[in-house]
Amino acid sequence: MDESGQITIDYLVGITIFLLALVFVFQYATGLFTPFESSSDEVTMIADRVATTVVEDRINTGDPHTSNMVSSSLMADFFTQLDTNYASTQNSLGLNGTFFCYDLNVSLENSTKVISCTGKPLPQVGSIGQTKRIVLVEDSSGNKQTAILSFRVW
């Protein structure tokens, strides 16, 4: 006969309380580090959405077989609009909301140099989401050249 005074239900209650305390500690500890996490995933997704909207809707030549073929004149108009009417372009791209406001910088470059850059200057600190799109730029005479459009959101 066992005279220790403990029964199986005591062990079960003790282990249950210990496991619940352990789960609580892990839940609380992960919440401690949340303010220090980067939001770069969020701004990268926003940069992807802006890049898709601009390249496939606003400056596209309309060729259904080549979604990344852009018109040089439409692109120049977009760059001018972003420089002159930044706030309205920001609103039309969905970057200015009720709770969050994001800034945008767009640059066009070829294999050797930056051809054009527009939007707000890049900040020195903070999370910046970037998406690059390789595009075919078609000018008014039908000549095409490959370029890279970089969209940066913060």
Structure characteristics:
single chain; 154 residues; five-stranded mixed β-sheet; 4 helices; 42% helix
Task: Write a structural description.
By secondary structure, the protein is an alpha+beta fold. Helices cover 42% and strands 23% of the residues. The chain contains four helices and five strands. It has a five-stranded mixed β-sheet. Strand 2 (104-109) and strand 3 (114-119) form a beta hairpin. Helix 3 (72-84) crosses helix 4 (86-92). The model has no long low-confidence stretch (mean pLDDT 87).
Give a brief description.
The protein is an alpha+beta fold and 154 residues long.
Sheet-strand content, in percent, reads 15-25%
Between the first and last Cα atoms, what is the distance in angstroms? 72 Å
Largest sheet: 5 strands, mixed
Shape type: elongated
Count of spatially separate domains: 1
Q: What structural class do helix, strand and pairing data support? A: alpha+beta
Which residues form runs of ≥5 with pLDDT under 50? Answer: none
How would you spell out the order of helices and strands? HHEHHEEEE
Average pLDDT number: 87
Radius of gyration based on Cα positions? 27 Å
- Strand line-up in the sheet with most strands: 1-4-5-2-3
In DSSP terms (H or I, runs of 4 or more residues), the helix count works out at 4
Q: Please estimate the helix content.
A: 40-55%
Number of strands: 5
